[in-house]
């Protein structure tokens, strides 16, 4: 399949206005500057200047632009060199709540947005979300006044909706790459930290869009800087997730790995399913565009290795996630965590009856840092591409309490599953091992270590949906798929790989007609080599062999058709993985 070159037909622009070519070689100047064996006194002026830049970015000493020398772990990381932790119960045993949320939402403080903070927060709460992140676009205006202006609105919304967790964040223009969510735990310094981060590390503010080693290093430095703010207790926590990673093809595999490895406490994942899910609704009652806003094609600014099919969503999910044995699996196969999410990216919402006030313009926005409050439009907007937060996409996070830090910890630990259209009420996934040392259990995001030769079993408890979703029908789960992949930490040698050859669908359950709570189980065999498992489910209305072939994925999501991708007729859920590691 070779999609045609479609420009964005939605009412806001996420595109880059800078060249973005992906070279994997380090230029000579940077190579010398990165070599710590060479003292400063022996460097030429240009080399010394480059070293100063990289040192300021916090990465001097890395041996290549791939940052292969960096490493780090999180509590959920499958650390194959660690000693067996024993049978202390599942890491997920502290999960008392599954809290639904959305980390990608815009307001009148974005030049392509419209709504007040309270508008987005009230709708999110009404549509069943427990938490949300306000992520107005980064850039010169936002860095100058927007971060300050939106904070009182967020504080007021927190007071008005005390049962809803409302984080302040921003949508980062990642240097040399796409966009990403950055947010922090509420506190006295939330504005100061976000403002300094945007001023010092935003690709738009710093004119750092071009794909150069310096700009890639700036992105890495930004993530590391956020980690330092947590270490210095300026903020209690901070997280970064990459948004719509495959849309323009400019998030190369090595950049994603660099972000993850820069500080795995901070860089924890990407959008498995982008927002703008209404964009694929057919013309007449929708915009007739590309689902998710994924209407592009390969170009000069794209990573050359990505195929044309990667520029479309598959069943509403990003190609990096939807492809079994693809880029997401290639990251998981390295034994390191990388979570997926599903979000609204709400700017202007389908069927809404409001609009920006008279006189709203880019000039006015640049001066004021925001648009005036929305007003009644006197008509229904059928060409908008977004849904209200919680209306269609949900990210479910396992948390020990209904608190800000608890949700962030759950995200960091990978206690995450995502769904569209309320496909199921709940999914509980456990890997259970039995052997000479007794029984061990682990849940989503965790790593279960058990003696080699132990037996392992997957146990999945699904609660089928029994109430209508916001399109006024009760979804039915037709099938659940089990995906299994081998884990080999040495597979990270090629930083630009985006396949995992040892990952495939190993079991498909027909769940049509199942109601209530039911259990699916699978014998994972005797533990010999490390592996991971993850799940997905579907209403079964649109399927085809996976991108890497029927032998890998016999019946995966279909590639979405531009102008004819009704999101309500194509529902999926995906879970994060569980790793299993045999020990001696």
What's the structural blueprint in terms of helices and strands?
Blueprint: H1 28-34, H2 45-56, E1 97-105, H3 117-126, E2 131-134, H4 140-160, E3 165-173, E4 179-184, H5 190-201, H6 213-231, E5 238-242, H7 253-262, E6 267-273, H8 319-322, H9 327-332, E7 339-342, E8 354-355, H10 362-368, E9 375-376, E10 393-399, H11 404-412, E11 416-420, E12 424-435, E13 438-443, E14 447-451, E15 455-464, E16 479-486, E17 503-510, E18 517-526, E19 531-538, E20 543-544, E21 556-557, E22 572-575, E23 578-583
Parallel strand pairs: 1-2, 2-3, 5-6, 6-7, 14-23
Antiparallel strand pairs: 1-10, 3-4, 4-5, 8-9, 10-11, 11-22, 12-13, 12-15, 15-18, 16-17, 16-19, 19-22, 19-23, 20-21
Helix pairs in contact: 1-2, 2-6, 4-5, 5-6, 6-7
Give a quick precis of the structure.
With 584 residues, the protein is of the alpha+beta class. It contains 11 helices and 23 strands. It has helices at 28-34, 45-56, 117-126, 140-160, 190-201, 213-231, 253-262, 319-322, 327-332, 362-368, 404-412, and strands at residues 97-105, 131-134, 165-173, 179-184, 238-242, 267-273, 339-342, 354-355, 375-376, 393-399, 416-420, 424-435, 438-443, 447-451, 455-464, 479-486, 503-510, 517-526, 531-538, 543-544, 556-557, 572-575, 578-583.
